[in-house]
Amino acid sequence: MTSSLVEAQSKSIDNKLIENAKFSGAETHHKHYKAIYQLDSNNPDVVKKAFRNIKNVLNDPRLKGKIEVELITFSGGTEVMLKDSGYEEALKDLINKGVTVAQCTNSLQERKLKKEQLYDFIGYVPSGNGELVIRASEGWVIVKP
């Protein structure tokens, strides 16, 4: 390779690095955004990550006042909704921030649980997967932490 070719390639790489450093994220082009967070695990790290992800999206200045969020729990995530789970305040905090929090009733039946065993402030859907399918067809983004 000639030194001028090496120099040109080096400049090209430098320009790409400079351009990349200027990137500050996507711009919003819509008036309204919708995201549904899928929580199907009772792993404390995954649960905390889901709550943190939701708070982060709610606090994103690009999305402030423009986003609708739902948290749907099913399968292992059902345990998060149990009255003794220790997540009561975190769930209430999300609801107070405008997040809809709902539980799959199929998972209750499979786990032989009654609604009385879960927090009394959560909503219910017939199936978590059905909720995801419907929301996706309506243009909602599905997020799985």
UniProtKB/TrEMBL annotation:
Pfam families the UniProt entry points to: DsrE (PF02635)
Domain of life: Bacteria
SUPFAM superfamilies: DsrEFH-like
InterPro entries to which the protein is assigned, alphabetical: DsrEFH-like, Sulphur_relay_DsrE/F-like
Name of the protein this chain belongs to: DsrE/DsrF-like family protein
Organism per entry: Sphingobacterium mizutaii NBRC 14946 = DSM 11724
Lineage: Bacteria, Pseudomonadati, Bacteroidota, Sphingobacteriia, Sphingobacteriales
